């Protein structure tokens, strides 16, 4: 800046004066700047309010001058006690005032406000605050949206966990019932044969009665097992068109939330995918299971990463989940999708079996890519809705 410019700026300052400069600055700051006074007798007034009040309270500064009742009246009743307490506490202790509250403006808008001010004791015993008020409605609404999303994800995780437990229980029960049904059927046949071969010596021969009772109980037990098995067999599912990318992303976020270690998840979603008729919760159950399997396989690995990719294969939409972990033990590859096949300590060996059953119930396929290295890659192919 030249000497001439400095002299011109100095002249401008002297012309405007400090008070005018302050008002000019205050009116151009975001929010509203004001001086609020709480008298020793409990009465209060606004000594100064910048023009920013119009955008916040929808009231002109001239209306608010010396009359804070307009502002107090806009505060939501449930927020008013805390607001009054924050002002009184700041006045009594001369501590920095910071508070957040809600107002209802004359137009009916609900707004979130945040205020900050430093109190100063006046000679007459009153308290003066030089304060700044900001409209933080957008920020609070964004936080509320994030909280709502987090609650939705938490609910989704609970639903998926519940569905997984129910599927595991159903698969385990059906498998046990299937295995138990065979020896029961053999037992019934043996009892029938024994009853036919037995030649009673008298009309009230006790052995005949015992064989008849045993046969009745064996038949009863066999029927119970059959009913239990049918109860847990996969029934019809309701298929609704779904955006696979949205469904996959929700599953990734749900799986990430349950990860106890750091894994980099790389998303590679194809654009303009056709929708697929799916049971959303069941498919997400499969996806979360596969992603968490990768997380567990990568536990302790350096630069651990999982790639989740979607692709359009015309009649099908492919979802591929691959990792750079140690891969699948060659000893179980052939039986990988069979019930009770597992190498995980404490694993039930039902996860992949259930997952394949769910995908096949959707007329899709779940396979292991044997050519992927290093690590493991599972590929889901789901029929697209081309109508």
Q: Would you kindly provide a written description of the structure presented here, covering whatever features stand out?
A:
- With 387 residues, this protein is an alpha+beta fold.
- It has 10 helices and 12 strands.
- The protein has a 5-stranded antiparallel sheet, sandwiched between helices.
- The longest helix is centred in the middle third of the chain and has 61 residues, at 137-197.
- It is elongated, with a radius of gyration of 37 Å.
Helical proportion, percent range: 40-55%
Within the largest sheet, what's the order of strands? Answer: 2-1-5-4-3
Strand fraction band? 15-25%
Structural class: alpha+beta
Main sheet properties:
5 strands, antiparallel
SSE topology string: HEEHHHHEEEHHEHEEHEEHEE
Number of strands: 12
Alpha carbon gap, first and last residue:
71 Å
Radius of gyration: 37 Å
Average pLDDT works out at 80
Low-pLDDT windows of residues = 6-18
Count of helical regions: 10
Shape, per Cα inertia axes = elongated
Brief sketch in words of this structure:
The chain has 387 residues and is α+β, with helices and mostly antiparallel strands. It has helices at 3-27, 53-57, 61-64, 69-74, 80-93, 137-197, 206-232, 244-257, 280-297, 351-361, and strands at 32-38, 44-49, 97-104, 110-121, 127-135, 240-242, 264-268, 276-278, 305-313, 316-323, 365-368, 377-383.
